[in-house]
Amino acid sequence: MLKGLIFVGILAAFATSDNVVFKDCGSKMGAISTVNVTPCPNEPCLLKKGSNISVEVTFSTKEEVTKASTGVYAVLLGQKLPFPNFPYPDGCKDSGLSCPLKSGGTFKYNSTLHVDSDYPTVKVVVWWQLTDQNGDMVYCFEVPAQITK
What are the backbone angles phi and psi of residue 23, rounded to the nearest 5°? Predict the structure, then answer.
């Protein structure tokens, strides 16, 4: 009986997991372990207009990062367009990170993306990047998404 309950608990944990399959798009100064997007139980991630999407990235660094900048883009028809009004461009503030990030450390970056109700209903690839003090890519990932009503 106890084994059955443990098995059901493990299945439930996997069923509610929002870890997504991502494509690394140029991580240089770091390496991504996991990307978690909530809510995103299936891919492409459905980004409902007027809602907030939470993103958590677990990553390690290859060199010390003293300053970090965040960029969030929608790739549409081969064009990389910034999500307007992203309120957290400083990767060292309001993200769970406290710079400097030591070389070889493992960190969790957390942020939120508001899906504006004015965005078009369209399939996109979300491109999320963190760059260091030299403009080098600490990490970069792409996740398929669809903006929905």
Answer: -110, 125
As a whole number of angstroms, the distance between CA 83 and CA 73 comes to 5
Is residue 119, in this structure, part of any structural domain at all? Answer: yes
* 78 in any annotated domain: yes
Phi, psi for residue 5 in degrees, rounded to 5: -65, -40
Residue range of the domain that includes 47? 18-148
Written as tens digits, the pLDDT of the chain (149 aa) is 433 333 333 333 333 447 899 999 999 999 999 999 999 999 999 999 999 999 999 999 999 999 999 999 999 999 999 988 899 999 999 999 999 999 999 999 999 999 999 999 999 999 999 999 999 999 999 999 999 99
Distance between CA atoms of 99 and 68, rounded to whole angstroms? 8
**Residue 47 sits in a domain of what CATH number?**
2.60.40.770
Q: Do the Cβ atoms of 139 and 31 come closer than 8 Å?
A: yes
**Structural domain tally of the chain?**
1
Q: 7 lies in a domain?
A: no
User: d(Cα 119, Cα 147) in Å, to the nearest integer?
Assistant: 8
**Any domain includes 1:** no
Rounded-to-integer distance, Cα 20 and Cα 34, Å: 8
